[in-house]
Amino acid sequence: MSSRRRVVVTGLGAVTSIGSTVSEFWKNLLAGVCGIRPLSLFDASAYRTQTAAEASEIPDGFLTPAEKRRMSRADRMGLAAAGEALSQSGLDSARGDPTRIGVILGGGTSRVAGGARRGS
Length: 120
Fold this sequence. Notes:
The chain is mostly helical and 120 residues long. 27% of the residues lie in helices and 3% in strands.
């Protein structure tokens, strides 16, 4: 007989092109806000597509400047979302069993390799 394990979602976090918190994301999603805009993180003039859904604001004020320099942008986004989820959860890490706490993190990124074709 298999045991039924329960999972409880206690907090959410989001850093997206239409909001850098869950509440901002949800409000903009319901309002039909489009997150696709001209690229701003690099000069895209050599590429056929010059728009994307960039997350322009990363709430990383909790990191020191040295920590920001050592982390990738994706790492800072993940930490910001995880921090929001942890804050929402109300969990007290000093009192809970850390072996019974988990995080599911999803993200996406794409890079243009140095030898990739441009503008075709």
